Amino acid sequence: MSAESQTSSETKLKYRRVLLKITGEALGEEGRGGISPERIRGVASEIEEVRSLGVQVSVVVGAGNIFRGARGSEEGIDRASGDYMGMLATLINALALQDALEKLGAPTRVQSAIAAAQVAESFIRRRAMRHLEKGRVVIFAGGTGNPYFSTDTAAALRASEIGAEIILKGTKVDGVYDSDPMKNPDAKRFERLTFQEALDRRLRVMDATAFSLCMENRMSIIVFNLFVRGNIRRILLGEPVGTLVAG
Question: What is the pLDDT of residue 11?
Fold first, then answer.
């Protein structure tokens, strides 16, 4: 991209500081889990593309491709222990994403809510904001650092703490529907919802704790398909992509 076109894109940006919430499944092999270098490179290239436009990008990664605490408790693992295992799994995904980003030339920092000094900084709000101001991608790992809270809640919390303008929730579907589009071919997709409408319709945009945090702090959310190339850039340039949930 030329300097002129980059400058032109910067003037059109709708959002300049965002938090991207990535489901763990987006980083794993389809139907198998684990780490998919190809998928991680794809996500990294999308992030670097918008970072190069001047957007301050932070990321919260899930761990569904490796381990879910709730699933572990269903199989007999103590819930708190299972959640800590899931938090550690997010650190694996964060390091994989960091590696892919740095190979593309993007400066990054991983900040973890669980102390892991040899591979990541501890989460410090002011330091995270300073990294963003310097053009670094900040990847938040370790969830909130507490069991019984999801990475959706971590995303809502971190977005509020760093003053993000919006949460971009990347999923496998292209927005919020009135029923499961995988099961109902007539499911209706919403282009825009208020928080109250989402509650009244009992639409699962995020888990209840995360959604309450966003609602209380007026933190808007865009739910979109992460697997469509260029969607993040389109959103940041103001194009209608996915479903906007706002106050």
Answer: 52
Helices 125-133 and 151-162, axial angle in degrees (round to 10): 70
Question: pLDDT band at 12, cuts 50/70/90?
Answer: confident
Minimal CA–CA distance to 140: which of 166, 105, 102, 114? 114
Rounded Cα distance between 59 and 57, Å, is 7
pTM: 0.91
* 132-172 residue pLDDT tens: 999 999 999 999 999 999 999 999 999 999 999 999 999 98
Which pair of tokens denotes residue 150? 């999801």
Distance, CA of 115 to CA of 142 (rounded, Å): 9
- Rounded-to-5 percentages of helix, strand, coil across the chain: 40, 20, 40
CB atoms within 10 A of CB 48: 19
What domains, with CATH codes, occur in the chain? 3-246 (3.40.1160.10)
